Amino acid sequence: GKWTLIYTDAPDITSLEGGPLSTAKLGRIGQECNPPSIKNVIEWTRPEWASSLPFSGGESSRVLQKVCCEGSATKDNPRQVDLKIAGLELSGVNNNDDDGSGKNAGIGGSLFNGPAGFFESNPVKLQGPLTTPFGKFEILYLDDGMRITKTYQGYYAVNVRDENEWF
User: Fold this and answer.
1) Element of type H or E holding 117
2) Which terminus has fewer CB within 10 Å in the chain: N or C?
3) What residues contact 58, with CB distance under 8 A and at least 6 apart?
4) DSSP-derived secondary structure letter, 154
5) How far is 4 from 6, CA to CA, in rounded Å?
6) Residue pair 157/29 in contact by the 8 Å Cβ criterion
7) Among 75, 60, 69, 52, which Cα is nearest to 117's?
């Protein structure tokens, strides 16, 4: 299922929020779990300072970065999930208005609509035959609406199912 992160103390996540001149603004963070596939989803939006720049996309344009992993657990310890990184996906959602003239078609048009427009027209999926260890986590609590995990480094994450799916 799809989960949205509502709390974490993991520095690899809390440090994603950039400064006032960052080239992208951190949006929501989520996770898509379809065992054995686990995709960590990071939403990047246009920063406020870039709103008047050409080629920056619309106000609600966003890029979705998915770190693709494979998760596995054992019968002896089903609450501990070992992760292996398997790839990366980039896609875009561009809500920029198009006047229907066709001037925004193709790669040139997708660039005109900013990063979200580019990745909406040209999604990236990098996945090879090899995987590499990425970490592990323990499921501390799980029900239909909430999941609490602890990483092997001792950091916590709380995820909830969002009624309005965003990825």
Assistant:
1) helix 114-121
2) N
3) 46, 94, 95, 96, 97, 113, 114, 116
4) S
5) 6
6) no
7) 60
Q: How far apart are CA 7 and CA 57, in angstroms?
A: 29
Residues 6+ positions from 108 with CB-CB distance below 8 Å = none
What does the pLDDT look like over 112-158, one tens digit per residue? 788 999 999 999 999 989 999 999 999 999 999 999 999 999 999 99
C-alpha–C-alpha distance, residues 27 and 65, integer Å? 11
User: Tokens in use for 9?
Assistant: 């103390």
Asked whether the beta carbons of 161 and 1 are under 8 A apart, the reply is yes
Task: Encode pLDDT of 70-88 as tens digits.
Answer: 999 999 999 999 999 999 9
- Cis before residue 123, ω within 30 degrees of 0? no
pLDDT in tens, 16-36: 988 888 889 999 999 999 999
Gyration radius (Cα) of the chain, Å: 18
CA dist 38 and 13 (Å) reads 16
